[in-house]
Every structure is written in C-alpha cells, then in structure tokens.
Amino acid sequence: MRASRKISIEDIMNPKSLLLLIAATILAGPAAADDADLAKQLSNPIASLISVPLQFNHDSGYGPTGGHKSVLNIQPVIPFSINEDWNVISRTVVPVISQNDIAGNSGSQAGIGDVVQSLFFSPKKPTAGGLIWGVGPAILLPTATDPLLGGKKWGLGPTAVVLKQEGPWTYGALGNHIWSVAGNSDRRDISSTFLQPFISYTTKDAWTFALDTESTYDWKSEKWSVPINLTVSKLVMFGKQPVSFSGGPRYWAVAPENGPNGWGVRGSISLLFPR
C-alpha cells in the first residue's frame, strides 16, 4: 500500500500550482456587469470591504549562484466602523516563504516570515474633491520561523494612503516607514521606507488592468529595491461567492547587490465578502 505524501510549503509555492488556480477562472461563472463596482473596490486598499487576498510572488537571480525566492502573502483586510464618520481598516501581511541560496550558498529555507500589521483610520466619505485617505500605525512583528526569513526585530512607524476614483480609474499611493524598536541586538537595526504608487482601470465586465511599483529604501544600507508590477484581474462568481483572480509579470528595475534580478511573476486569488 502506497503511503500518502505530505504536502509541503514548496508544493504550495510551486508556480505551476498558481497557474492551475488562475486557470479555474475559465470554469467559474461570469461576473455580472454591475459587479464592476465590486472589482473596483479591490483597487482601493482601504475600501469598506472584507477581503482575503492570497498573493504569490516568484523572483530569481539572488546572489552569485542565482538563488530564487517564492512568497505567498496572506493579506486579510477587515474594516471596522468606529462611528458614523470613521472606519479603521486592518491590513495584515503574513508571508509564507520558500527560498534557496538567496545569500550565496545559504541553502534552502521555508516557513513564515515577519508579519506587518497596519491600521488605517479613514473617513467613511471622500473629501469634497473626491480624495479617499487613511493614516495610522504600521507594526513589524518578528514572527519568522528561520533566522534567514526575518530580521528578529520589532518595528513601528507611520503608514498612510491617499487615492482617487474617477469613472473606471483608480490612482493613488500607499506608503509607510518602519524603525526597529526592540529585538535581537545581534541583528542589524531597521529603518525602511515603503512607497507604492498605483493606477488601475476597471472595465464594465469586471476586468481590471493595474500598474504599480513597490519601492523600498533601506536607510541603513542606502539601497533601493524597485519591482514594477503589471497585473490583469478578473472578478468571477462561484455560486454567490465573488472571487478575483489576478496575474502578470514583474520586473526589478532597481535591486541591491545580490538582490533579485530581471523578471519575476505575480499572481493572486482574492476572496471577497461584501457587506
């Protein structure tokens, strides 16, 4: 009798698994035209919409041996109503990482990385000029299950987002800065700025075309990391459950020495829970 094989993190992070999941859109029911508004809400990082994106990134070219890294970011977004005028939106990023030789002959590691928890305090209604905005704290939690998967530091700093939605267009920027405030004294301190300008276009039949960068500046090493992401998304219905599938290429325009090189791939599946 053949023993059953355990499913590993490497199996989950395999790009082929992602492609099979995205191909499921062909089998799903089409979204109605009025679901374009729901698709558009996904372009708003602080929309009053519960969502659970599962975002996959695969990059290569690390170090002298051309190491590679796959990251599955589990990113639940949950809005809470404070009063008639304000929401607080919780955005959590839990990275599940599989990597090989990202620091020379460093071997393979797989597990959980450091979690980033952000809270945005945001007015329920846009400004008179149509701006949507939110501000709050960003917290870095040293949850990495391996020393090479995280910094072993607690971090804290401000985060903010501002955007505008006009017709089918959404454009704006999200950013934060995190300083390490406690943790392992043998590890390097953290002072890092994250900037994410974005623009997207949503069609009447719930397709979304998006372009963004996720630039990070490390103030300790004085180095930029700038991946450029181009994605195409489609909102579909599985029964009454709306799901968004997304995929596309990413290109590392700037990376530190021994960082990722050239082209990578991004894909995501987002479960939506409209109120």
UniProtKB/TrEMBL annotation:
- Source superkingdom: Bacteria
Q: What taxonomic ancestry is recorded?
A: Bacteria, Pseudomonadati, Pseudomonadota, Alphaproteobacteria, Hyphomicrobiales
The secretion signal range is 1-33
Q: Write down what this protein is called.
A: Transporter
Annotated keywords: Signal
